[in-house]
Amino acid sequence: MALVIPIKVSSNFNVMNFFFMKTGFYRFMKDATLAPTHAHFDYIVIGGGTAGCALATTLSQNANVLVLERGGSPYDNPTATDLENFTNTLFNITPDSWSQPFISEDGVYNVRARVLGGESVLNAGFYSRAEEYYVEYAEWEMDEVEAAYKWVESKLVYEPQVTGWQSALKHGLLEAGVLPYNGFTLDHIVGTKISGTIFDPAGHRHSAADLLEYANPDTIVVYLHALVHKILFTTKGGQRPRAYGVIYQDADGVFHKAELAKNAMSEVILCAGAIASPQLLMLSGVGPRVHLEAHGVNPVVLDHPMVGQGMGDNPLNTVFVSSPRPVETSLIKVVGITNFDTFIEGFSGLKLTNNLMHRFSEGILNETSRSTLAITEFFKSINLRSNVLEIDGWIVNKVDGPVSRGHLELRNKNPDDNPSVRFNYYQEPEDLEKCVKGLKTIIKVINSNAFSSYKYPNATARELLNRMLTLPINLRPRHESAKFNLTQFCIDTVITIWHYHGGCQVGRVVDKNYRVLGIDALRVIDGSTFLKAPGTNPQATVMMLGRSWGRRFFEREMLSGEITKIIRSRIKDDRDINIWSSPFN
Fold it and tell me: Which is catalytic among the residues 225, 256, 499, 501?
């Protein structure tokens, strides 16, 4: 059952825009090589990702908006986003691909998106809202949050059909004690549930980029392959720095300048994600002074020690379960939300070509100086007569939070390069305790009657766990004790589920209205502001955040327009109006 409502033709909708929408292109989406060298906009949105697309679409209803996306368009190769191509697209790290690899200083492989739509183009598609207490703690308005969630859901989200392997996982979770059964719901509730997906019944993905269909095509422009190098600030006298524009580079190496219009409410809004947003702040001179000066960043606009701090990535540990019977290809549809703050999910029937695995590993080799003997030995061991590696079942345990935190630092001044990131997985004992409890629950699922037909009868859960110790799933050392000690197993086999966040956290880098502390006309609206990951999977809340703040800006513009009309009706000489003294400044 699809949650998507029929397209409603709005007043700003025209036949030409419909044509471009149906073919996967928008007439306002262009390569940055076609951009003017200098232009002005009411809002400049850096990053056309999960938050940026929702935000820019909403802003365009009442303002001129520029979106700068460093990657390309997901519509250039529509089948690459289909469910069947999930792994091949995620692990395709060729220079022009949508997936950019990086390795944290913890020795864990990771990727970041470089495509319009951001992580929603690469992820497993699972859609689930944040916890109620999360919304309360963030001091968001509940009615605004609800309206924004529903707006996203009406356009992108479907109810999945749960059969076969996913059904066995669901019943296995219930048998393992992850209760109660909450059926299909988008809400975050302890127990086992089915949640939404951004894949339609035919297996086609509907990413955040699709939200641009609802933008006003006359007031928005999206430039692709537009690499922002720095945010520009006015720093006159002793006044607070104020963002007034950006410098970005197109694929031909030509630099362009975009500036804010002379409007009291015009702003630069960073939506570049948990890696690029703190990185770009630093490259623009906003960050820890000593660190910026050491990397030759000049000038240092504001000494902001907390930029890049509080980086978190929810640690994930997994078990591959070979099946004696055929399994369907499925991404996450079911989740077990435990009462000890872990989330158990699963994938089935994933396929990855050996050629792509080799290319991914070569990319990893280029990213690290660590020992890669495990990777080399792995490729010697796999059956090269088969061109495809198949993973029948993949059950994962994700730790909520996490409590453990790390930091991000610059490596150089190239905004397209990966910065140095350390997440400090399992540094805090609380995270480790949750992992152990989660793995014990997975063992119960594997041993359940409900799951028995999808596991070879002679394969024990402990043997399946120990097999993970032989696979090059990360670059961390292996310890013999991990074969019988779940705590050590958690440490040795930790991987990512790509839910990293932090670096521009609320209360530390931005205020509760997402304004960068100490700077005017600059906000950060994306996952880098999170103190912890929301819900089981963050994409729902990231898109909601973009939509809800877009609505706030829209309402602010409307209110300001009414106030301006009243003032102008009382003042004969408009030149007496000092628009820069607006109460919305």
Answer: 499
